[in-house]
Hints:
Chain A is mainly α. Helices cover 75% and strands 0% of the residues of chain A. Chain A has nine helices and no strands. Chain A has helices at 4-20, 41-66, 73-87, 89-98, 103-128, 135-141, 145-160, 165-180, 184-201. The two termini of chain A are 23 Å apart. The mean pLDDT of chain A is 88. Chains A and B meet through helix 1, helix 3, helix 4 and helix 5 of A and helix 1 and helix 2 of B.
Amino acid sequence: MRTGRLEAFSDGVIAILITIMVLELKVPLSAPKFGDLEPLLPIFLSYVMSFVYLGIYWNNHHHLFQVVDRVNGRILWANLHLLFWLSLIPFATGWMGENSFAPATVALYGVNLLLSGLAYSLLQIAILRAPGGNRILADAIGRDFKGKTSLILYSAAVALSFLSRTAACAVYVLVALIWLIPDPRIERALATHVQDDRDKTD
Amino acid sequence: MRTGRLEAFSDGVIAILITIMVLELKVPLSAPKFGDLEPLLPIFLSYVMSFVYLGIYWNNHHHLFQVVDRVNGRILWANLHLLFWLSLIPFATGWMGENSFAPATVALYGVNLLLSGLAYSLLQIAILRAPGGNRILADAIGRDFKGKTSLILYSAAVALSFLSRTAACAVYVLVALIWLIPDPRIERALATHVQDDRDKTD
Amino acid sequence: MRTGRLEAFSDGVIAILITIMVLELKVPLSAPKFGDLEPLLPIFLSYVMSFVYLGIYWNNHHHLFQVVDRVNGRILWANLHLLFWLSLIPFATGWMGENSFAPATVALYGVNLLLSGLAYSLLQIAILRAPGGNRILADAIGRDFKGKTSLILYSAAVALSFLSRTAACAVYVLVALIWLIPDPRIERALATHVQDDRDKTD
Amino acid sequence: MRTGRLEAFSDGVIAILITIMVLELKVPLSAPKFGDLEPLLPIFLSYVMSFVYLGIYWNNHHHLFQVVDRVNGRILWANLHLLFWLSLIPFATGWMGENSFAPATVALYGVNLLLSGLAYSLLQIAILRAPGGNRILADAIGRDFKGKTSLILYSAAVALSFLSRTAACAVYVLVALIWLIPDPRIERALATHVQDDRDKTD
């Protein structure tokens, strides 16, 4: 099976998730002044964070399936499993935003990020274990230092939530930055491989 | 007509359905503790079940159209008919979740699954009866034992709902498992055929 | 410009419209019996009608762009204009369903169908007037008897709404049936043309 | 990386945004007369304006990526940045419509358009600065007179909002018209380039 529909379906789900989160920013009725928007600030901030996270996941998903040619049943389900945890992000975001970043809500948000991160790792493993393996992906992620570090940081932030919500949120921002800042080594490795493959095909 | 847009449209509808179900998980306002989430548990469980079912339908739809090259008006409408019943799953899920799996709600959920299953069978028949037929699909589904068993089990579960809700839900879980666990015989049959076809084309 | 993204965008919009209509079927809370669903019946019926209409539009749009190779700015906007009127169908449907098919609501629904039908005709004209024209489409629609009849029937139904809501709705069902029942003459004409073109290309 | 998934994802997000705006047009319950729709008029007008703006953005995005072959991380994030500001348009539209175009709401709408316009300019810059540059785009936009004028007009309209809401809205309509009316010079320039490129490839 080719990857086309899996990519299209995942794009659809992530596009909808990233967009329905904005529905949590409920339009204030009979409230025509800028000051009336103030209570929406925590909801807006939580929206920005989740928008960036879903953007990162889409981005990484996009990169990941650049190097995948065929999918099997296991990869399809590992992908749906990832989409399941991502689908809960609007809820976790809304709960956190509506309750002004209360400790339990910040912790649940971290649990959601942690489970999404785990699901992403499982998806990578499913791809690596597919018949024939995936040498390019194996080289590109190596020991997956970035992925493992993220999981550890999420876990730490969940525990931190009850001590300091600000610190927990700072960790979420930090992990997002780790993924936002491009990693030229990986890009180069990928480029080389793709080039190698093309040379062989031609 | 090629299958591209039919697939894209179905992907879009299923992606939206799988995602709007999560909107039923309404964010509790002024409720910042973990305990505040407890009333959402039945809604969450019903969400998980329907997410898996829609995932199975997407998965099967994906497989089905792997072996279809061209669509006619009948196939287009059989597909829209399937999407119609699937589009009611968020409603049936929400009704069941919001009313803590009350007997009538569990029965209606089963009726929805039954009608979706029937619509899927009709779609397969529409494909098999298209001019030229579809030898690969005919071989792959055989007498469609799995499909027919599912329909019988759904019907049984609808009746069971009024005796034991737990038993009815157990049947829904069982049918989901039947479809989740990969069926290597079919995959092999498909692979052989595709290989045969390729050999002829080359 | 190729038609790929115009088709994908239209598929997306129609898929979302057909799906968000189901959100109007609000899940009744603390209402676990079948009888509790009775008040939803008019909403359900209006949903079925609009699902079929949007299905017909998607189907026709699909057919239409089979014979279009390139789009210009005018076609893009004619298409967005069509999507605009279609985007109001969930509202018109909801208003009609929530108010048990009151005369004014049935009339507005007809106005919405009329404007969507007009927008579709304008889209066909934009395609026919594009540089080079579109001989296949011109032959396939001829004088567009079906399209013009629909517009006349919609107009009649709008007027009828205030005399007999049942009669008006019967007209909407009739027009839907006109489009649902396949028109073998057109399909054959199209097939011949496509065949001709292929012969020339090969 | 190819542009396919970036286009599909952007199409998905814009299709959803353009469609969820219509949810702000809440169906009036127990309100079966035409007069009952009157309070929805400002919401409808704000919907029309935003539909046109999102249509323009989709249209321009479509044109822009016609001349882009490959995307890098920077372009992906510049695109997500644009989608972020566009994702707030339903909120700004709803706030303006629900509060009958109160001055602050008209100003915020303008700020949203301004930030979306800036994000679009940044996306163009990211494309121009990609390795190898983009000669066709550079020629097509030149000094981007239209883009810069729009940003100045948006800024003026934001300030104007507090003096005259009508004048501010007139400016928004004016900018929309500037983009709606096709610019034959650019189309021709693009056509020439594409032709040149094809000649070289062939």
